[in-house]
Amino acid sequence: MMLEMIRKENDIKNLDERQLKELAGEIRQFLIGKISQTGGHLASNLGVVELTMALHLTLNFPKDKLIWDVGHQSYTHKLLTGRKEGFDDLRKYGGMSGFPKRKESDCDAFDTGHSSTSISAGLGYVAAREFMGESHSVVSVIGDGALTGGMAFEALNNASRLKSNFIVVLNDNNMSISENVGGMSRYLNGLRTAQAYTGLKKGVEDTLKRIPGTGDRIVSQIRKTKSGIKQLFVPGMFFEDMGITYLGPVDGHDLRKLVKVLSEAKRVDHAVLVHVITKKGKGYAPAEENPARFHGMGSFDIETGEPTAIETTDTYTQVFSKVLVDIAKRDDKVAAITAAMADGTGLSVFARRFPQRFFDVGIAEEHAMTFAAGLAAGGMKPVFAVYSSFLQRAYDQTLHDVCIQDLPVVIAVDRAGLVGSDGETHQGVFDLSFLSTIPNMTVISPKNRWEMADMLRFAFDLGHPVAIRYPRGSAYEGMKKFRAPVEYGKAEMLYEEEGIAVIFVGHMAELADRVRRGIKETGYSCSLINARFVKPLDTALLEELAKDHKLIVTIEENVITGGFGEQVMDYISRAGLNVRVRNIGIGDEYVEHGNVDVLRREVGLDKDVIVKQAVADYLVLQEQ
Questions:
Q1: Which of 209, 367, 448, 587 is the most exposed place for a label (fewest CB within 10 A)?
Q2: How far, in Å, CA of 418 to CA of 442, rounded?
Q3: Which 3 state secondary structure label does DSSP give 610?
Q4: Which residues, at least 6 apart from 188, have a Cβ–Cβ distance to it below 8 Å?
């Protein structure tokens, strides 16, 4: 087996052409086999096998720097740098990450997880290289989906000024997670092979430059006078006009051509973009036919491609989807926005039912938020459905464009809390903190599937900015008997006793209920409150609790810093209330990848730990 010959970085260079072809096939079979067991990002990795091999054949690791945009397509890179054994524990707690990690290998140049970042990071590496007087290559790989992000264009604009080599590889598979949309996608689809043009252009330039005294000036003038006809017929002119040499498109599954074009790119003395055409899911029919489903998935049956674990109840995302469609049937001003995540956020059903009111803006969360603000200002009722970790990118637009104007935008914050196997870059544990800092913002979180439906309807009726926060996975079906109407700024008292009060946020309902029962089993009374509103706080309730409770325990799946619990503690301190607060949440740290239940135990969101802490605190207070 060829894979057995790859023990460390650069070993691939010892293989001949026939062996390299065998290696590509073995890599695909290995990835399909392993990911079928562990879950992970299959389609994106199958699409870049030959591209990754070509990069490893032309670069020298770890001296040369390779930066993967997003990074979920780095599995072949990990195999070629000697991490084959790590795939048994891929994305498990304490195991190998599904993304590049500098602490994992010197061959991982930059930690990534969000899109549109690789060109900026690569430029930083180039600037550092020039300052240090070094000579290694720097390559940033970016997908056509990620190229719709504004940050990528900011970096390309900056890259055009370079006077030294920097290679950007554009991995063009016409997909982000869902199919790409917009002008850049249409532009890339229209490009054709440009090798003949590239060679002719280079020959003409070299000939003109040899004219004594005036050659350089003539070339410069020609570059400044790109005609409209040339724009129509010459591929890559968008990049060429920026001062970035364009090479391609090249077949991303032809190893010989890839090595040739990458070798040429290394000789360019400024920024160069290599346009590579790949097929997502290449080599595995189910992934080729439905790459979106094989983006980030759990274990599956190799023969059929079907998942081995199937949700038996609706997820929060599915509840959101169904209720949103129901609301939109009754109100034709309701519109929905996604940033290239229609399937993941549950908006694909809305898109089919109401195509005129559905907007996929591509990977552009900042634009999506301000676009939502414009829709609202124009009289529409928009909802922007976005993962918590990606909402971080639109903080300024939320503050500046939505909330200053107090516009009725609903932000559906999906994948909030610990999401598990994708790790630090994807954990949605900061939204309660950063959203709560914004004036005019209302932040709510449902305890179960029925409250999810009630809160979404409440959000559209509110007429002001509101974020509704919910997790990945099955919607909780407990506490069905508690369904008081959602009243602005009011928490929900579930069990009213005295001594200890537990207040939970959203999907911490099941854990909080178990904590209450645990406290009662030790012989102490315990009230249980569903916060419902993270902002505004139900301060009237806090003042009532302070009268007959000595301890308030807050539970949230968010960082403690700036979160719900700290807001409770701050109010109680400022109001001079005689009650102690114990905050349960995530500490000042990033949470790595792993099973969510395991991660919760690791961060202290564990019933036995919380009960022990609460009872110990209460005993101390009784003695005082």
A1: 587
A2: 22
A3: helix
A4: 144, 147, 170, 172, 174, 275
Active site residue 589: no
Three-state SS string over 336-374 comes to EEECCCCCCCCCHHHHHHCHHHEEECCCCHHHHHHHHHH
Among candidate residues 65, 78, 280, 582, the one labeled active-site is: 280
Is residue 209 very low, low, confident or very high in pLDDT (cuts 50, 70, 90)?
A: low
Please state, as a whole number, how many other Cβ atoms lie within 10 Å of the Cβ of residue 550.
Answer: 18
How far is the C-alpha of 173 from the C-alpha of 279, rounded, in Å?
5
According to DSSP, the β-strands at 442-444 and 533-535 are antiparallel
Please indicate, yes or no, whether the overall pTM of this predicted structure exceeds 0.85: yes
Q: Is residue 86 part of an annotated ligand binding site?
A: no
365 tagged catalytic: yes
Q: What is the pLDDT of residue 201?
A: 54
Nearest to 67 by CA among 193, 202, 159, 4: 159
Closest to 350 in 3D by CA, of 389, 382, 393: 382
CA–CA gap between residue 126 and residue 25 (Å, rounded): 34
Alpha helices, DSSP H, located in 39-166: 43-46, 49-58, 75-80, 118-132, 150-159
**Cα Rg for the chain, rounded, in angstroms?**
27
State yes or no: 145 annotated in a binding site: yes
Six-digit token string for 549: 């409770």
Q: Residue 396 region, left (φ>0) first, then alpha (ψ -120 to 50), else beta? A: alpha
Q: What is the DSSP string of 149-195?
A: SHHHHHHHHHHTT-SS-EEEEEEE-SBSSSB--SHHHHHHHH----H
Asked if residues 485 and 412 have their Cβ atoms less than 8 Å apart, the reply is no
The response to whether 89 counts as a known ligand-binding position is: no
Per-residue pLDDT averaged across 60-80, rounded?
A: 95
Sequence-ordered list of residues with C-beta below 8 angstroms from that of 154, at least 6 positions apart, any chain: 120
What is the per-residue DSSP string for 402-452?
IITTT---EEEEES-B---TT-TTT-B-SHHHHHHTSTT-EEE--SSHHHH
Q: Which of 279, 282, 293, 393 is catalytic?
A: 393
Which of 9, 50, 264, 365 is labelled catalytic?
365
Residue 490 falls in the annotated catalytic set: no
Specify the higher pLDDT residue, 143 or 200: 143
DSSP 93: T
**pLDDT score, position 231:** 43
Residue 591 corresponds to which tokens in the numbers above?
């949470």
To the question of whether residue 115 is assigned a binding role by annotation, the answer is yes
173 is in an annotated binding site: yes
**Is 470 known as a binding-site position?**
no
pLDDT tens digits, 528-578: 999 999 999 999 999 999 999 999 999 999 999 999 999 999 999 999 999
Tell me if 72 is assigned to a ligand binding site. Answer: yes
Mean pLDDT of 236-252: 88
Query: Does the annotation place 478 within a ligand binding site?
Result: no
Q: Within 13 Å of residue 82, how many CA atoms lie on the same side as its CB?
A: 12
B/e letters for 370-381, b = 16+ CB within 10 Å, e = fewer, are: bbbbebbeeebb
What is the arithmetic mean of pLDDT over 106-124?
Answer: 94
What tokens does 313 get?
């109840």
